[in-house]
Write a structure and sequence with these properties.
It is built from three helices and 51 strands. With about 500 residues, the chain is mostly beta strands. It is elongated. The N and C termini lie far apart (about 65 Å).
């Protein structure tokens, strides 16, 4: 093996590649750049690695690196940028296989990386940002896209077109126009990804069959999170969808398995300083619509003294508090509508107080279980035997029956957060099967906080089993139980003839 140095042995990366033999390594020094060139790699089994920092490759043609018909090539530690002419590529693989691209920042290109007719490649630990399209995989099979950050791309984060058996896992997609599209692609796996802040869709399958979409977290997106259009025999499971406009949408798609997904919307409103610990919960009943209740917690010292009036959130009273002391780790809490006083526990790792309040509507039999993290001022916390750091944050968790059904919301210590479900004029769907979506299985999903929970529209022979839909403002379930198999549903409001839900959503 020979190690070739750029710029000491050769002035350009391309000249070093021409001189390389299989098994050689090319080390490119960052101080010698930026390298204004387009590098064509046609030698098998070589490594091209940036050293002494991250070398920058900028336009000297219409691509940064072009792996042309090679195998076992590795590109490591570069910044490839500004190849932004129409159809330019930061990195292009054509008929290349078993190559590895890692630790590369690919930015401000038309295509970040384009795999064309290239199989069994590994793309990992890279950053694709501010490109027109982040990652395009076309006519390519068996590649792995792992642990990449894909953000701020103008159109799509990832497009997989006419490609099979690829794996997209452990990636962070953020603030792309749309997240990931599978088009005419089969038997791919999309798992353990985080997709957030997209303007349009998050995961879309079009004419794609036999794919698995699982264990993904999708949040803060504007349109449907997961869409299956003309796609059959796919599995969508164990995904968490938080604070999105709508959830899962099937159109003309059959024989799919939709199971164990959590589809939740929570709206949050800030409350002014110097307020007593309180929060608002909104409940929905068939007869009365949406009802909101203001709940104030009483804070009791270990001796049983009510210290609620001294438990105000005041930035002025917290300025002298610099750390936490754990003198008396537990305090009793009582509140309006609570079933019983409950202990307030100091969490040493997170610097928070954890109070679980079980709230019951006196007029209806709907039981709401909440887990709320509250901070107290130094006056009240001193009386109760502990002090809180003024720069810590408060966490609110929206729960039901000891199960978190929404995202964790954080706020500064100087604010108290109000939790509220969407109002009745919101227009969102949790899970929607549009006309012609037949023979799908919808199992063990939790769908809460939308306008419409689970809707099966003009579709037949679907199985809905053990789903929970709750706190949806228009209805929880709408399905024809004669044309479809329906069992074990939990909901408050259903649209006839689907009046088969257990009442109470508990």
């Amino acid at each position: 093996m020979t190690v070739i140095n750029v710029p000491n042995d050769h002035p350009t990366i391309q000249a070093a590649e021409f001189a390389a033999m299989p098994g050689d390594e090319i080390e490119v020094e960052a101080p010698g750049g930026p390298y204004m060139e387009s590098v064509t790699v046609s030698t098998n089994n070589i490594i091209i690695r940036g050293i002494m920092g991250t070398p920058v490759v900028q336009p000297g043609g219409d691509f940064g690196f072009f792996l042309d018909g090679v195998t076992e090539v590795a590109i490591d530690n570069f910044n490839v940028r500004d190849f932004n002419g129409a159809l330019d590529q930061g990195i292009l693989l054509s008929s290349a296989s078993e190559c590895t691209l890692q630790n590369i920042t690919v930015e401000n290109n038309f295509f970040g990386i384009f795999l064309d007719d290239s199989n069994s490649n590994i793309i990992e630990n890279n950053i694709f940002e501010n490109n027109n399209l982040g990652v395009l995989i076309e006519n390519s099979n068996g590649s792995i896209l792992n642990n990449n950050t894909i953000k701020d791309n103008n159109t799509f984060g990832i497009v997989i077109d006419d490609s099979n058996s690829n794996t997209v896992k452990n990636n962070a997609l953020e603030n792309n126009k749309s997240g990931l599209v599978l088009d005419d692609s089969n038997d791919n796996t999309v798992k353990n990804n985080t997709i957030k802040d997209d303007n349009d869709f998050s995961i879309v399958l079009v004419n794609s069959n036999g794919n698995t979409v699982k264990n993904n977290t999708i949040k803060n997106n504007n349109l449907f999170c997961i869409v299956l259009e003309d796609s059959n025999d796919n599995t969508v499971e164990n995904n968490v969808l938080e604070n999105n406009e709508s959830g899962i949408f099937l159109s003309n798609s059959s024989l799919n398995m939709i199971k164990n997904n959590t589809v939740q919307i929570i709206n949050t409103l800030g409350i002014s300083q110097n307020s007593q610990p309180n929060f608002t919960l909104c409940d929905k009943t068939p007869d009365l619509g949406v009802n909101c209740y203001q709940v104030k917690a009483k804070l009791l010292s270990p001796e049983g003294e009510d210290v609620s009036s001294e438990a105000r959130l005041s930035a002025r009273s917290l300025t002298a508090v610099n750390n936490i002391s754990f003198l008396k780790p537990k305090v009793k809490v009582a509140c309006d509508f609570c079933q019983a006083p409950i202990e307030l526990v100091v969490d040493q790792e997170k610097e928070i107080l954890v109070v679980k309040i079980c709230v019951k509507d006196k007029n209806q039999t709907v039981k709401l279980d909440w887990s709320v993290h509250e901070f107290l001022s130094s006056e009240a916390s001193s009386k109760n035997g502990f002090l809180l750091h003024p720069n810590a944050t408060v966490e609110y968790r929206f729960c039901r029956n000891d199960k978190q059904i929404g995202s964790t919301i954080t706020s500064s210590l100087s604010n108290l957060l109000q939790l509220q479900l969407p109002s009745s004029d919101s227009d969102t769907d949790g899970i929607l099967l549009d006309s012609g979506s037949n023979e799908n299985r919808i199992e063990n999903n939790t769908v809460c906080g939308h306008a419409r929970g689970i809707t099966v529209d003009s579709s037949i022979d679907n199985t809905l089993k053990n789903n929970e839909a709750c706190d949806n403002t228009v209805y929880d379930i709408s399905v024809d139980p004669i044309a479809n198999s329906v069992m074990g549903l939990i909901c408050n409001i259903s649209i006839p003839p689907a009046g088969i839900c257990d009442q109470g959503c508990s």
